[in-house]
Write a structure and sequence with these properties.
Layout lengths: L2 H23 L5 H16 L18 H24 L2 H8 L2 H12 L6 H18 L8 H23 L5 H23 L6 H25 L4 H4 L5 H14 L5 H18 L50
């Protein structure tokens, strides 16, 4: 196994551990409090992902400020949606629905980035959607708000990923990390005060710190993975989260999918892997819907798109030039 793939698999294991811990909070903490504290504690290991030559004080200097802000807002909403889904529906179901994000990425990339989408890719995406229907089975049982939130997370993930694919090659990583962090911390601090804030217990604080440490470490490992293996090998590793969802759901929350749901999960995983490996213009999906996740590492491997293909990657030498927006 290539070392980069091993790093990616370990990173996704850490992300799955974070999600399983988040589910354990249930309703003891509001989604706003969970999002606030985990983002705040994730910043500590994220500091070590800052490239040499970049400075946090320059995170506001961007070539595409509106797109970076859009990505940050989509990340905030998607993060809240997936946290709600994790705490209210089975982990495997939340993951299967969240993995619908590639459908929205393909549609948005086709519309706004002008990318060609092959019929094979649409076939894989359609099969993935059918797999999700087997897991959730709308019409055969009552859907909960958590299922709708997971769909919202997939939509926001599609927006965030598509936007990131446009801006990542030419923006500073401190901007791509720092601005979403600022949005999550500021917006959720306001919302959790409005919703009725109460201090977490010592045990809850310990788990929140653990989530931040695991998530931040996972991001560092994922960036290392992108530097040691091609994206075509790394991207399929994300579907290992479905297996971890089944394992953690059974071990800690007595969640046992039935046979039909297992079939649906297998379809989602297989079609998702085939989708990211289907052609040379593969649309990269790193569906960790958090502030610091694999999507942040896409700047390591993404070439510039459109007019930005003629521009050099943003560097510290650009700090003296005025920021512009398109």
């Amino acid at each position: 196994m290539p070392v980069g793939v091993a790093f990616a698999l370990f990173a996704y294991l850490l992300y799955s551990c974070c999600d399983a811990i988040i589910k354990g909070f249930g309703t003891s903490l509001s989604v706003f409090e969970i999002a606030f504290w985990t983002a705040l504690f994730s910043f500590i290991p994220a500091i070590f992902t800052k490239p040499k030559g970049e400075h946090w004080r320059h995170l506001h200097r961007m070539r595409h400020p509106y797109l970076v802000h859009l990505r940050s807002i989509a990340g905030v909403i998607g993060n809240l949606c997936i946290i709600y889904a994790f705490t209210h529906i089975p982990l495997a179901e939340a993951y299967s629905i969240a993995f619908l994000a590639p459908i929205f990425v393909v549609a948005l990339s086709r519309t706004f980035l002008g990318e060609t989408v092959t019929w094979q890719r649409w076939l894989f995406l359609g099969a993935s959607f059918c797999g999700v229907l087997l897991v959730v089975r709308p019409g055969f049982r009552e859907l909960q708000l958590g299922h709708l939130m997971a769909v919202g997370a997939a939509i926001m993930g599609g927006i965030a990923t598509t936007t990131l694919r446009k801006v990542a090659p030419v923006e500073k990583r401190v901007s791509l990390l720092g601005l979403p962090l600022g949005y999550v911390v500021v917006i959720n601090s306001i919302l959790m005060l409005v919703a009725g804030f109460h201090w977490p217990t010592l045990q809850e604080f310990a788990f929140l710190i653990l989530i931040g440490a695991l998530g931040g470490t996972g991001n560092i490992l994922f960036i290392t993975a992108t530097r040691n293996a091609p994206v075509s090998l790394i991207a399929p590793a994300q579907y290992s989260q479905i297996a971890w969802a089944i394992v953690f759901g059974a071990l800690f929350y007595a969640e046992y999918p039935d046979t039909v749901a297992y079939c649906g999960l297998v379809v989602v995983a297989i079609c998702g892997i085939l989708n990211v490996m289907s052609d040379e213009t593969r649309i990269r999906i790193f569906s960790r819907l958090s502030v610091f996740g694999p999507a942040s590492a896409i700047s390591e491997v993404s070439p510039p798109l459109g007019d930005d293909a003629k521009l050099p990657r943003r560097s510290d030498a650009d700090d003296q030039a005025p920021a512009t927006s398109k």
